[in-house]
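Weekly modeling sync, notes
Attendees: S.R. (lead), two postdocs, one rotation student

Agenda item 3: backlog of single-chain predictions. S.R. asked that every request posted to the team notebook include the full sequence so nobody has to chase files. The rotation student volunteered to paste the first one in as an example of the format we agreed on. Action items at the bottom.

Example entry:
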Amino acid sequence: MSQEFSGLKFKRNKWNTVRAKILEGEDNKRKKIRKELTLLKSVL
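Predicted structure, as returned to the notebook:
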């Protein structure tokens, strides 16, 4: 019972970590795009 529960908890933690990494990646992409847009605007 407790072993099964810790397994579920571990899976959930792993999923949260993966999701956090994906979200972080998306955020970095967005920041990069925003930076490039502001660079373009300053050139134009």
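Discussion: group reviewed the output briefly. The helical segments are 2-43.
Action items: rotation student to repeat for the remaining queue; S.R. to check formatting next week.
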